[in-house]
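Hi, here's the filled form for the chain we discussed.

Project: internal
Contact: R.S.
Residues: 219
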Amino acid sequence: MPSVILEERTAELAVNEERIRLARELHDGVAQTLYSISLCASRVLTFLERSEMAPVQDIIQELLQQASAGQTELRALLYDLRSKDQDQVQGGLVGPLARLATDLGSRTGCHVRLTLSDEPDVALATKATLVRIVREVLHNIAKHAGATHVELMLEAGPTEVVLQVADDGRGFDPLGAYPGHFGLQLMLEHATAIGGGLEVISVAGRGTQVRVRVPRRRP
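And the returned structure, exactly as it came back:
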């Protein structure tokens, strides 16, 4: 089987795994948000029964913020579930990366710096997988990092393509155990499926760098 066909079929399997992961995150995220909303509503009822009105406004404001955040995450995850990754990169890899960066800036208010090379010479399935990895990285930044500055860099060298996302957020221990979270492992599997590698450098309080390297097509 030609290597390009094998690469594309392997990447399609990775797409299916990614959609399963997104479905799991959709369930967990929505369930947690709804539980928080129900707790807030119960607190409001308790204060109303006691005719204690002072705390009610603050709790309702918190409830509205949680509902808004839940809606935003739900829309993003549903979009990922519905989207066909290879359709998104038909026009190239650079455009989708720029759109993801713009979306992160609008959602979080952090400053995103883009350094993007010319369109790299890699397979369509590889581009789709790179977009998927970046989407997961930026989702983690928005949800966990608390970053104010993010840098997204794409560099097409003579033999390989390097994609890097760096943030100045709170960081974490890449070797630590985070029950219920499979993002890092899936990103590694996706990178491996397209013949590349993934490196994560992070220190608590000093931000995170995620770097993906994939080979360019042979002439």
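Let me know if anything looks off before we file it.
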